[in-house]
Amino acid sequence: MGKRFALLFACAAMVLGVLAPVSAVSAEPVTGAIFTTLPNGSAVNFNIYPSKDQVYLDGGPGDHAPAGAAGLPPGTYVFQVTDPSGKTLLSQDAAQCREFVVGVQGFITGVVATGCQHATGIDADHGADGAVTVQLIPYSDTPNPGGEYKVWATPIGSFTCSLTGPDCGGDHGFDPNQSKTDNFKIKSKSPVEIDTSFHRASNGVRIDGLAITWTDTLGASNHKWSYFDSGHLVQHQAHVEGVEPGTHKITVANQSGCTIGKVTLDGVSTGISGPQTVNVNVKKGNSAESYYVDVECTNV
């Protein structure tokens, strides 16, 4: 009887496990990138926007990513807006209103129709592929004195709060290890940024289209690529803009077009060569300052 009872109990537990709602958390970090844009997917100087309604979410292979770069995995996602520390949730509607969909090509293709979904725009670069941008409002003003905000995106299966319920505190249901983040500012003229450039060891010429992984002070990450855009004052660099005080990590890896050699931070060598993670300690109270990571590529 004991064995029979145990078997029945096990079967019942299995049935209950199937019926019970479970939030499946992906074991692997999310690929691709997110970034803030204007409604049509175009960039602004230093990620500084004139007003909150002009900030839209874009996603995919990454802003200025080379052809073949990985996009976001297809599926449903949810986003939030917080202060840079992640402690204060600024998004003013329920999480179910902030759901969006990524298609097979890795771009955002729409929002989930919940009756409170956010407005969308047409991505000028990938509109032919059905890519859209998603407006971030409504969200409260940031308590950050520098006018800084942080936007997060995570797969719906990794979201740990109720989609319809109140804020559950902590990271507000967003696991940093399973989330992409990007920072932006409203009406600020004092950007603090981390700029990474790659150059040929033979002649010092900078190389575009190379990737870094930025991990913010909360442990969330995103990908950025080096590029040139004179109109937005980008000089062959991978930009991380509007960064909050604390330790940020810039990871550089061997990739097509660059075998990593020496690396410097603000002109000082890290002391090692090859793929590595550079700790960039952003000081509190700094304004209009850039931190420079310079990477030598030995194979070109």
Features:
300 residues; mainly beta; six-stranded mixed beta sheet; 1 helix; 6% helix; disordered N terminus
Reading the helices and strands in chain order gives HEEEEEEEEEEEEEEEEEEEE
pLDDT averaged residue by residue: 87
Radius of gyration: 21 Å
Sheet having the most strands: 6 strands, mixed
Number of strands: 20
DSSP summary: helix tally: 1
Unreliable spans: 1-27
Content of β-strand? 35-45%
- Helical residues, percent: under 10%
Dominant shape: globular
Terminal CA distance: 74 Å
What structural class do the secondary elements suggest? mainly beta
| Biggest sheet strand line-up | 2-10-9-4-5-6
Report on this structure.
The chain is mostly beta strands and 300 residues long. It is 6% helix and 38% strand. It contains one helix and 20 strands. A six-stranded mixed beta sheet has the order 2-10-9-4-5-6, with no helix packed on it. The N and C termini lie far apart (74 Å).
Topology:
Elements: H1 2-19, E1 33-37, E2 48-49, E3 56-60, E4 75-82, E5 99-102, E6 108-111, E7 120-122, E8 132-135, E9 148-155, E10 180-186, E11 192-200, E12 211-215, E13 221-225, E14 227-229, E15 234-241, E16 246-252, E17 260-265, E18 268-273, E19 276-282, E20 289-297
Parallel strand pairs: 2-10, 11-20
Antiparallel strand pairs: 1-3, 3-8, 4-5, 4-9, 5-6, 7-8, 9-10, 11-15, 12-13, 12-16, 14-15, 16-19, 17-18, 17-20
Summarize the structure.
6% of the residues lie in helices and 38% in strands. By secondary structure, it is mainly beta. The protein is globular, with a radius of gyration of 21 Å.
